[in-house]
Every structure is written in C-alpha cells, then in structure tokens.
C-alpha cells in the first residue's frame, strides 16, 4: 500500500490517535499564491517543491506559522488582514478561521508559544497603526484571550526566541492608512526591534541610528546561537544605498552592508529573510531588484544571485528554496541559484518552512 | 526510448519564440556592439584636449543610452552598470571619489586592473563628464592620465558586456530550459519585458522625476548629465531605443507605439536641454506632461505587450511588504 493511501485510511479511522508532525510526512513548506484565474490560494509544498495540497484563501495571503507539536499551521492574510486560517497540515484542510477584534487588523505574521498553547499575532490598531500582539488560545479553538502593546508602530514579523518564551518583534515603524496601505509617517518613522517577556512586558527596544530611521525593520530569521537576523526596507531615497540586513544580539544591533558594487542591487528592499543551517548562511530577497543576496552569519557578504521577482525564501535541503512571483521554485545552494520547477502560480511574499 | 529522449532534448533545445530571438539579434547585440565600438574609439584617442574628446564622449554616451535599459546579464556583474553610469548620485559620491583620486595623484591606481577596483562612483561616463566639462578644467599630466584611464576602463567594460552576451548570455536568454538561468520561454520574455518597463520608469521617475522634485522644491541641479547638456537628449534617445525594443518584442502593438510617438513628439518640442524649466511653472508643466506621457507608454505596454508575451511582471515587486 502506498504511504499516502495508507495515511488516508488511517485518517478515516474513527479511533484516530492524535497526529504529530512526523505522521503528517508532508508538506515541508507553506506558501500563499495567486493562481492563473486570479484567485488567492495557499499551497502545502513537499521538500521538492511539489504541491501536496491547495486551499482557497478569502483574500491575498502573506506568511504562516507552524504549531510546535501538532501538524497544524496558521496562515495569515496580507496586511491589513481580516483573516487567519488554521490549517490541518496532515489532512490539508482548514479547521478554523480567526478574525481580528473590532478596530484591529492582522499584519501578516504570527508565532506560537514554546508549548504551543498560545498563538501570538502581529496586529495594529486600525487607526494610528499602534502595534498590538494578539493572544489566542490554541488549546481552546483559538479563542481570543488578550493583547499586548508591541512596543512600536506597525509591527510586522515576530518570532519566539529560542529556549525561551520571549518574543522578538519587528516594529516596522510605518503608520499606514487602514484602508489603502498608504504610508502616513515616513518623515518621522522610528522602527525598532522589541523583546517582550511571556507576560507581555517590553524587556528591550533596539533602534537603528538616526540616519537609518527610515529603514523599516520588517522580517526576522532566528539564528541557532540566539541572535536574530533582520531584513529591512528603505523608505528614504532609493539612490542612497543602505544596509538591508542587520543582526540583533540581545538588544545590540549590527548592520551588514554589502560591498559597493552590490549595494544597489536590492533597490533598498528586502522582502524576506531565511537562515540555512546547512550553509550556515542568511539569504535576503528583493523582488524589486530581482535578486537574492547571501551573507555569512557573521554578517559578511557572500554573493548576489539574480532571480526576477524573487521573494519567498526558506531553508531547504541543500541550502535555500526560493519562490518568485513568476511561478518558479528555485534551489539556492553552494553551486548557485537554479530554477527547478515552473508553475502557473504567482508565489507570494513568503515561503514558510514547516520543519519543526 | 531513444525517440522519447530525442524528443525531450528537442523540446528543451527549442529556441524561444521569435520575440526574444529578434530582440536579441536586432536590438541588443547591435546596440552593445555599437557601445563597444564608440567607447573603443574614445579610448583610442591620445588627446586630453576636451575639445577633441567631447564629441567622442557624446557618441559613447549616446550608444550607452541605447542599451542602458538592458539591466540583465553581463552588465550586472562586477557592478558594471553602476560603474558605466553612476547616476543618480544625490550625495555627490562621484565628485568626491574623483577629487580624492586627483588629490592622491597616484599613478599606480591608473593601471587597468587597479582602476577597475576603484569606486564605481569615480568611473565611467560621469567620471569622464566631470573631467571634460569641469570649470575650470582640471589640468596637468595626472588629470590627463586619469581621463585616459577612465576612458580605457569604460571601453573595457563595454567590451566585456558585448563579449559576455555574444559568448554566453544571448544563448541563455534564447535557449531557456533546465539547468539554465531561465527555465522557460515565458521567463525569458518576462526578463525582457521587465527591462522595457523598468527603462520607461527610469525615464519618468529618475531622469525627469529627480529634477522635477516637487512643485515647491524643484531640483534643476539634479538633472542627469547636466554639465554636458545631455539631460533631454538622454530621455529622447532612451525612448527611441525603448520603442525599437518594444517593436522587436511585439511587432503589432499599436497603442504602445502610439504612446511612444506622443511622448517623443512632446520631448522633441521641448527647448530645454537640461530641464532648467523645472523652476518655471509653464516650462515645468511641459516636463510634467512628458513624464506622464512616458508613464502612459508603460501602462500601454503592460496592457498590450504583457498579454501578447504571455508574461506578467512584478507580482511581489509591486507589492511592498
């Protein structure tokens, strides 16, 4: 019997034991996309980038986060988000839909507590973009159980720091119009990286130097040693090259500028970031520049790879997997970036690794 | 088995449709060859007399504008596109870097290998413009040697780009498939469509947008190649090149071609070679109309060329998040 049909019959059994990630077998990644008909979808992908399941999305998606033990993930709407979907990754089905409380909007990202009991969501107050972290009870059908201040304006990505229940939050600093995403405070924006305790207390807030205040801190990748790599989007003059990658080390920030010849490639924009344990390297993507830049984990620049509209990136078997808006799934390893599969989809901003 | 294998090989080796092949053979390769030849002529001159070099500089600059939108392949390597034409440069990095070279007056850095490692801001066409149009002109043997080293370096980059396309990148683009940088014909078309659209946006947003600034704060000093009086000429030549490029990609695109014609006649009617009019309300209006006309070409090209090529672009690039 083939593994999948065995699994299906197992799933059909009523005396089903609770499944873990190992039982799910697949998928290895989640990614939102737009399909050829213009509909928004969520795909579960195998390690080789093949679609394992596809689900419709109510509106354009963004990122997702995996439950630490259950084969379950939560997929988030693109900001200003009105939904988050809880997905059973073993069955490829939607099991719950979260809606932000009145006056709140999801901002595209979320993460679980270490024990998987709580889901934290990145949110803003619709008016003014003050950052909130929404708390949802993952043991009780994701009931809304509270919220905290995120420590800044316009939070975007957030992660749970390893070996703790502290959260690290990329407060992007940008106040946006609640309906049309217009940016309202570029002249005065002040992004930060905030660390929150499991009780919601702001333990530290790290800011960029004043001349980089218009560099919105938006996406995060955890490093095995406890540091956090962060990717930025420059709202200042695009002809003025600034670092787009930084490293957070317990509240201290180090910026990682590429050499001059590579400093303009990304056009001031990093859309996603990932760490590859295999290569011990970081990748940041720029759909605007049509490129992926790789850095060592000490911040040294390694290489630029070209890929039009590249944005999604996650650790993969030989290094990284990269997805782009033109539908390709590429591998990025020591030999370089190579497109492997072409699909009729426009892969959206993030490729989310589910490996726990 | 053999037949299947042969068939598969055949499918993968199939050249992209005539659109990509024609753009490469009729637009890209001739343009790059002309850029190589004009920069070689400039570099071959023994003179340091600006009166002798300026016409050669303009020929080389004209040739660059005809290919400047082709931001893919060899020109992306080693920062060549930046080094050939380091603009926009809002912080004046080029002037600072060149002043430092002149001050140090170190003959060793003028050796080709060494010069190619200098700041991209100091090199290329804008490095030459500062040397040929400075007032007063920098004089002395070192300034002369720097002029020649800059011209030689420019010619070397033009040669590398033309050669890189000839040897390798033209085939990369026209023979997509597994193991190649472009997996499908659609991807190759997308790459060229992106170059076209980005080239149009560069004219509207940078070449015109930078000097236009805002109504309350126009920035005439930010016009491209102002010292050598080329600001408007660069827009005109770029539009002509982009029109030819679009025609090679999709021969039947009447709205796009009409939009090009409108923008070009608007540009031709301007008597404002360096966009000095940005500070004058009436002259400014004409420049704003030209920028709008160029954005209208982009919109027409996206509406007409993208479906014809079966290639959309910029799902993530246009999103921002």
TrEMBL record, chain A:
Keywords for this protein: Signal
InterPro entries: Quino_amine_DH_bsu (IPR011044), UCP028101 (IPR008311), WD40/YVTN_repeat-like_dom_sf (IPR015943)
Pfam family, one: DUF1513
Signal peptide start-end: 1-22
Domain of life: Bacteria
Gene3D superfamilies (alphabetical): YVTN repeat-like/Quinoprotein amine dehydrogenase (2.130.10.10)
Name assigned to this protein: Twin-arginine translocation pathway signal
Species annotation: Gemmobacter aquatilis
From TrEMBL, chain B:
Keyword Signal among record annotations: yes
Taxonomic lineage: Bacteria, Pseudomonadati, Pseudomonadota, Alphaproteobacteria, Rhodobacterales
Record keywords, A-Z: Signal
Secretion signal span: 1-18
Gene3D superfamilies listed in its UniProt record: M75 peptidase, HXXE motif
GO terms for cellular component: cell envelope
Pfam family, one: Peptidase_M75
Subcellular localization(s) per the UniProt record: Cell envelope
Protein name per its UniProtKB record: Imelysin-like domain-containing protein
Domain Imelysin-like per the UniProt entry, residue ranges: 38-297
